[in-house]
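Quick log. Single chain, no ligands specified.
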Amino acid sequence: MHKKVNAWLNENYIHGKMLEELIICNIRRVDIMTKTITAVLNIKYPILQGGMAWVSEAKLAAAVSNAGGAGIIAAGGRTPEYIREQIKLARTLTDKPFGVNIQLMAPNKEEILAVVCEEKVSFVTLGAGNPVPFFEKLKNSGVKVIPVVPNVKLAKRVESAGADAIIVEGMEAGGHIGSLTTMALMTQVIPEVDIPVVVAGGFADGRGLAAALTMGAAGVQMGTRFLIAEECAVHDNVKAKLLEAADTDSVVTGQSIDHCVRGVKNKFSLSFISLEKQKISEEELVKLATGTNRLAAVDGDVENGMVQAGQSLLPLRKIEPVAKIIEDIVAEANKCFKETAGLVL
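-> predicted structure:
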């Protein structure tokens, strides 16, 4: 039988070569799908909701988890008591896994970490600092650890330290950003580690999810896309601002002081960028920016506050329930897979 197959392949080299490539492609695809974050977090779809400060609360996190993704409660700017309250509230709204995002530059990170361990949430995402010293305590409490890392070097370091997965976030994302694009991070980080890699930055639809999975990502994290969800607590003025935004309305502040934050063009962001060009001191710039995220997200001042959002703005077309948003993303991703299934170079 094998001799006949080999003879056929030899006689039909071109077709045989295509078959060989197709087999290799399918093997790679199986490998991709076995590394998906769904297995790590016991969720249905490889979609994480971003931990957005002042925005990601229990109601949004629970809605995402109920819809098959992984919801996240943001601890940024919050007290330990608030986080405990939100965890307990989320548990009344869902029986699915959800996590907490902890900013490691926060002065009360140890207290919040203690709450997370006591409450035994499913997982944490850790950013803005060195996450390794916190691994042991979290793992001893049964909490899965998913650090946010900016490059290959740190990806390998946290993998060696026992991270369950990692998140890499491109500069297309909203809020605090690094210097590499999402594509560059996927290209360079994914092949270098064996743990699942979730990618963030610019993902807002099913085409993006399909592209990330095809690149070998374990899943995607979306923040901006969920800002216009019905269940999102962000001020209605922010939702309206995002719905009217054009594709070129994303800007980055803080580049002159190496503290880059991406948001939407408005009075504050354009004024801030203008002051940066005038060489205003770092101290003055930091003072101007302090509290502006909350001013927009909570108080609804979308002209004098920083409306943090990523670059993919046009997919934000209407306010919908989280379940509908995720349903559409998954359907579009599956459509992409079906349409490209026969493509072989």
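The first strand starts at residue 47 and ends at 49.
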